[in-house]
Structure formats: structure tokens, C-alpha cells
Amino acid sequence: MMTLFTFDRAPEFAHGFVRDIRIRWALEEAALPYVVESVSFAPRSHLAQQPFGQVPFFRDGDVELFESGAILLHLGELSERLLPRAAPARAQAISWLFAAFNSVEMETLPWVYFHFNRVQNEPGWLAALEQRRDRRLDSMEAVLAGRQWLGADFSIADIAMSDVLRLVGHLGGLADYPACRDYVTRASARPAFIKAYQDQLAHFARNAG
């Protein structure tokens, strides 16, 4: 039986919008059997399952996942109702899955955050953003301390995460996060990254002007 984990409670303004709804929806669409279990909203006691203290996280036998996008992709592999099997349609669905989180949510979430917290017109808006940034970096520092890669071996997860952190570091945001800095340095030293970086610079240099 698959198990969906969510908070035991949430602020009233978030009811109907907590991200476990994405997983509930997919499970219902695919008619997959599941149960729901609760974890404490505060204090966060599930960092071993979700390193940022968020929900949802998910268990399917001995497979455990966090992040709603990863869970949706896993469920898509289980049901053609969620993810087409034909290559062209499958590619489109996966592209739009990533677009929802990376291109649309990334740009709209700060506005939503400020709307819900009623600080969009306050002078401390930059400090609020920095606080949210540092909360994520604190989590990543703890995850990366004493660890070479996010998993046992280098993977596409490290390509994505190290590139996100590389930009933060480029803007000075990793000054207090040595494990994150070392992780970015390791990733950026890989021959494939060096070639990709040099090729990109050369590409834009050729097309300059």
C-alpha cells in the first residue's frame, strides 16, 4: 500500500493548497490505492524523510520520495492515465511538469508568499527573501556536510542542485556555507561541466554582436 505523508494541521489560509493535494489528485486520477499519514506541523520531526521539513513525502514499498514533482513522476511511471507511454506525448508531459515548477511557480511564488504574509509593501522585503534563502541553505548545508554527492553516486540531481547553488554562490550567497561551496567546487571541477561551461562561453562569444 502506498502512503502519502502530510502535516497534521496547517494555517487556515493554506487549506486546499498544501502540496499533498497534487499527490492526492494524481492517485485519484489513476485509481491507485493509498493511505494518508500525518506528521507534526511543529516541531518538524521528519527531516530524515524530507530534509527541508516540508510535505508531501511518499512511500511505495521500499521506495521513498520527497518533492511533489518527483512523486508525480513516480506515479506517472505506474499509470498511463498520468503519463503517456508514446514518446512524443511523454516528452511533452514531462517538459510541462518541470515547467510548472521551474518556470511558472518559481516566478509566482514570491508574490504568493508576500500576499499571504502581508509584507509586500514593507521595507523588510529583501530581508524576508534572504531569510527564506538561508533557511534552504541551512538545510542543504546539513545534507551536504560529509557527503560527496546527494546520492551514493553523481546523478542528474547533482547537475540540477549544484547549478542552482552555483548561481547563489556567484552572487555571494554561500559565504557562510562551506559544505555547499565545496559541493559546487567538486561539481564544477568535473570535466563534463568544464567542457559544457567553455562551450557555452564560446557559443555566446561567436554570436556576440
UniProtKB/TrEMBL annotation:
Q: Give start and end of each GST C-terminal domain.
A: 86-209
In what residue span(s) does the GST N-terminal domain sit?
A: 22-83
Q: Which InterPro entries match?
A: Glutathione-S-Trfase_C-like, Glutathione-S-Trfase_C_sf, Glutathione_S-Trfase, Glutathione_S-Trfase_N, GST_C, Thioredoxin-like_sf
Q: Which Gene3D superfamilies match?
A: 1.20.1050.10, Glutaredoxin
Q: Which keywords accompany this UniProt record? A: Transferase
Any single GO molecular-function term of the entry would be: transferase activity
Pfam families noted in UniProt: GST_C (PF00043), GST_N (PF02798)
What family does this chain come from, according to its entry?
Answer: Belongs to the GST superfamily.
Q: What name does this protein carry?
A: Glutathione S-transferase family protein
